[in-house]
Amino acid sequence: MSALAIEYQAINLSQGFPDYPMSDELIGLTWEAMKAGYNQYAPMPGWPALREAIAAKIQWLYKRPVNPSTEITITPGGTYGIYTAITTAVRPGDEVIVFEPAYDSYIPNVEICGGIPVCIPLKFPDYRIDWDLVRSRISSRTRMILLNSPHNPTGIVFGEQDILQLMSIVRGTSICLVSDEVYEHLIYDGKEHLSMLRYPELFERSFVVFSFGKVYHNTGWKMGYCVAPAPLMTEYRKIHQFQAFSCHAPVQVALASFMKNRESYLFLPQFFQEKRDLFRDLLKQTRFDPLPCSGSYFQLVKYDRISQEGDKAFSVRLTKEHRVATVPLSAFYQDGQDDHVLRLCFAKQSQTLEEAVNRLKKI
Ligand code: PMP
Fold first, then answer.
1. For the whole prediction, is pTM greater than 0.90?
2. Which residue from 103, 225, 344 has its CB within 8 A of the most atoms of ligand 1, so it is best to mutate?
């Protein structure tokens, strides 16, 4: 959709990335690190000061002591972090529970490792997890459950009940968890992010994945990290060592000092909530119906007051004729399930959102 957006000079609300600048200070710190000579390989698990800063953040936010030497690895992005976790734990024939709609890398990653994705639908329109259904799909071959909260593309977030259900399902099994928490700070209406890091019983079997790109408005930097208990992280690093070995050194040096300032991420829920509220408010001028959004920077909209076309055909037409690019939700399902829903990214300047709605209201 991004390629089509460029071709038709459409406003691109399809891919998840901001259209406003990242922090000048962080750019300056990276430049300084380069000038100071931090231009050779960083250690395989990541720059030590960055891992220490991450451990301090986790202790402060999620009240979990993690050992920066043995339990944190810096990765070239969150997607890589997830793939490496899957590669670490999944062997041919293993079953992996994946909730659909799903971030597009999960299922191919499982399949590359010879795993069998067991897809569980999050049902339109509230997309809650049906834990009884999950229970019924667990078998002796279930190796992993892939979790994502706040969730892309639906914007749902875990509540206490989800955590309790998850605990009761995995207790006494050897199922491990990959928890994609790249939207940890993009959570609204005073809700708290229920990270796997908060729950010792869940963390002991988890690979928890984060992305600096989502936190610091620089998705093009492709930097992230994975946190896992030492025995799991030891295995994870055996894969990482021969996949990427290490990541961009000067950026790690810069992030280590930048992230010590908690304000660098604490303003994010409010910042994005304002964008969400503005966008939802503007959408009232259109015939698109927004679904609830508690987290992430994606807004789902239903369009069946406008058209009965399939979502792919409709979003292509929207891009070509009305010059607003979106993602059809069927793209997040293996079987192309189509509930006439589109995903729009609101990590944009107000004027971009206003101009997009000016175009959408004409439909
Ligand atoms: N998980 C989800 C749910 C995402 O939306 C994204 C980014 N689109 C990622 C992981 C990957 O983040 P990164 O760009 O750091 O690879």
1. yes
2. 103
